[in-house]
Amino acid sequence: MRKRKNSFLPEKRTCKFCGNIFQPASRAFRQTVCFKVSCQKARKKATFYNWKMKNIEYYKLKDLSNESKKTEIKRVNEWKKKNKKEYNRYMKNLMREKRNKNNA
Ligand SMILES: [Zn+2]
After folding, report:
1. Which phi-psi region, left, alpha or beta, contains residue 62 (left: φ > 0; alpha: ψ -120 to 50)?
2. 20: helix, coil or strand?
3. What distance in Å separates the CA atoms of residue 10 and residue 51, rounded to the nearest whole number?
4. Which of 9, 30, 81, 90 is the most core-located residue (most Cβ within 10 A)?
5. Residue 12 Cα to ligand 1 middle (Å)
6. Which residues face 22 on adjacent strands?
């Protein structure tokens, strides 16, 4: 067996979610969350949510002009507030469609 050199370890950081200090894995330079299961779950949820939000606005608005973008954003936001459940379901379906399209 070959002897492995001590790989470089990034500095310790504070977990974004629980606030604990942790030692990131050597490969995960951008890691901001500790290894606790609950924190990992929270991280996944947060990343997915951010991604989803960014992409939805992008896909929905890229074909519209500036003026209709503003109107559309306003309309969607108002609708979102009133129909949270509907909205979540709609998004789920939308994302599933996108995934299927990307895989095809
Ligand atoms: Zn944590």
Report:
1. alpha
2. coil
3. 26
4. 90
5. 13
6. 13
Looking at every residue in the chain, the average pLDDT score rounds to 80
Q: How far is the CA of 99 from the centre of ligand 1 (A)?
A: 30
Ligand 1 centroid to 37 CA: how many Å?
8
Contact status, residue 52 vs residue 95, Cβ threshold 8 Å: yes
The pTM score is 0.43
Write the CB contacts of 34 (distance below 8 Å, at least 6 apart in sequence). 15, 17, 18, 20, 22
- State the distance from the centre of ligand 1 to the C-alpha of 101, rounded, in angstroms: 35
Average of per-residue pLDDT across 72-95: 83
Task: Count Cα neighbours of 84 within 13 Å in the Cβ-side half-sphere.
Answer: 1
Query: What would the two tokens of residue 5 be?
Result: 């050199």
Whole-number Å distance between alpha carbons of 21 and 46: 20
